[in-house]
Amino acid sequence: MKYLVTGGAGFIGSNLTNMLVKKGHEVVVIDDLSMGKVENLNDLGKVEFIKGSITNKELMKSILTKYQFDYVFHLAAVASVADSVERPVETHEVNYNAVLNILDLIRKHQRNLKRFVFASSAAVYGDDPELPKKETSSIKPMTQYAVDKFAAERTAINFNNLYNVPASAVRFFNVYGPNQNPESPYSGVISILLDRYTRNLKGENIVFTLFGDGSQVRDFIFIEDVLHALLLVSESEISLGQVFNVGTENETDLNQVIMELNEIYGFDLPITYEAARVGDIHRSVADISSLKSLGFMPENTVFQGLSKLVEFLGR
Ligand code: NAD
Ligand code: UD2
After folding, report:
1. The domain spanning residue 23 has which CATH number?
2. Is the confidence at residue 38, as pLDDT, over 80?
3. Torsion-angle region of residue 280: left (phi > 0), alpha (psi -120 to 50) or beta?
4. pTM of the model
5. Residue 267 is part of which domain span?
6. Best residue for ligand 1 mutational test, from 32, 39, 149, 226 (most atoms within 8 Å of Cβ)
7. Is residue 209 classed as helix, strand or coil in its secondary structure?
């Protein structure tokens, strides 16, 4: 099969690309390397890597007219909520306008497509007290990131309904695993935590900044489980035109994550506390009944996932 993975040098995209290549599929990756790294791709010789922005209309047209894809996974985005608060206009260009353009190009030029899978986010639910979040829960996007994710997700589903562009969307909760870039202040919290543990182990005296009191709750899901979910959604017939939460249904607060990592590493990470971030969501947990109806069952607890990740990174 032929796949296009946008954002394929990033965290989720590179893990997906590496798995697809391992299964013997052909993969084209487009990434501007703003957050991703070519080194995340295990077998560059087997991937057609294109460095460029999804906002470049000419480039996207050339890719989507040159190849006929079976599957498109759209993962490229300004992936940080806090970054979108700093850069709402740039975020909108990447996280919405580019998606609309890609869908329109697919509508006009892709004849073999089996599925376009859009990476949306649990952020669309906002801070509404109704928990766990069901796909039918109320939507309360609190940042440009969340507004654009919801709008792009609806656009993908509308292209499915109006123009027969086969599309599904997934709302990721908090994903963690190898290849998550810890270098931006807006990186995923687990990647930042692991970076701080390893640097302390190497003798650097570096403190982790906790925004809030650590009681914020997330539904953390390990990348292996996410890849399983992505394959199920892309290959199932009943997922066509549908949106799926991708989480575990387990609530973990940040203090517990740090406690488990202290146990895995065998020392207490030095922490400094700052005010909670503007736009931060206090509690987020998924209802995954819909995903389970496709045959999904998360296999890793947070402790198991963190242990595998620490193993992978080496101490
Ligand atoms: P990531 O930042 O590692 O990956 C995104 C990739 O897109 C990066 O490699 C980046 O360089 C690339 N990119 C950014 N702007 C681009 C542009 N204009 N043109 C081309 N490439 C561009 O983030 P991730 O965690 O792998 O997230 C993947 C997708 O999943 C994103 O759409 C993100 O919003 C969504 N998501 C992630 C999580 C999570 O917990 N990681 C949660 C919810 C949703
Ligand atoms: C994540 C995703 C986002 C999204 C959402 C879905 C990333 C980078 N962001 O946002 O794309 O769709 O999940 O729910 O993966 N924190 C600290 N110290 C730090 C960094 C973070 O205390 O150095 C806190 C942060 O304020 C927040 C929590 O940790 O309360 C999680 O932050 P995050 O950026 O990992 O994830 P989130 O949920 O904001």
Report:
1. 3.40.50.720
2. yes
3. beta
4. 0.97
5. 177-219+249-285+300-312
6. 32
7. strand
